[in-house]
């Protein structure tokens, strides 16, 4: 029972929170950007709230930052650049391609995640994993079927943004479960200030900050100000949950979850904004949801097979667990020799 409860906490709970907050922030962002059309400034607000929130939780004693050397600190700087550059490419490409086309290309993120993991991390995946991704990717293509309008440069930037999204997801997972083993809040504390500074610099270079100052002088209201603060708070919670879910699951799981989230956004848009969908869109929605459920089943089945065949049903002492693992490993080694 203890093992099952731990597994539930490690997977289902955090992914559920990720879905709820991700969907909420997507719809919240759409509402905010209708009146406050400055995406880079909004991103700066998100990262600023991430820095303030994570530092506040550090002061409250909820986590202890790891002691990193110069090499590890440089990794954090590069990660923040990757985070900011990923957003930049995505925003620029959206101006050059239609939203349906953008979503279809981004649906290929799991494929890029697998390719990069195989090439650089020497990971391997079963045939069932590959098969379960087919309905997920195809479903997003059908669900977003519409006006596929794009330029050649837009196409290249969208593909580049998809590759960067896959790299970012993999790196996020590695810095939390690899040699660094950073706490999710520790990662957010280190990444947010750097990303905020980079975003502000980019907004200044593109002239957005000047437009924001003019807008604030003429149109900023108290309700909009509180809306921006609330939006930043939701973004902070999403970052915490996203990093934690990534750490407790895998990079590939997070990219599949992102695809399912895209389709759920369409479903909510139908309900909230009275968006019309075609029968083909409906088939795509069902395909993606079914594919996401299939992938989850495949992953959980494979994880259960990888676990030790002897699982204690009650809490045992660490010494006992170590003896069980040692005994199992010795038996497995003897079987391999035979």
Task: Describe this protein's structure.
Residues 328-338 have a biased composition (Basic and acidic residues). One of its GO terms (cellular component) is membrane. It is found in: Membrane. Its main location: membrane. This protein has 338 residues and is mostly helical. It has one domain (2-307). The protein has 13 helices and no strands. It is globular and about 55 Å long. 35% of the residues are buried. The model is unreliable at 1-8 and 308-338 (pLDDT under 50).
Task: Summarize this structure briefly.
By secondary structure, this protein is an all-alpha fold.
Biggest beta-sheet profile: none
pLDDT average, as an integer?
A: 76
Strand content: under 5%
Output the helix-strand order. Answer: HHHHHHHHHHHHH
Cα Rg: 22 Å
| Cα end-to-end separation | 35 Å
Query: What's the shape?
Result: globular
| Structural class by secondary-structure content | mainly alpha
> How many individual helices?
13
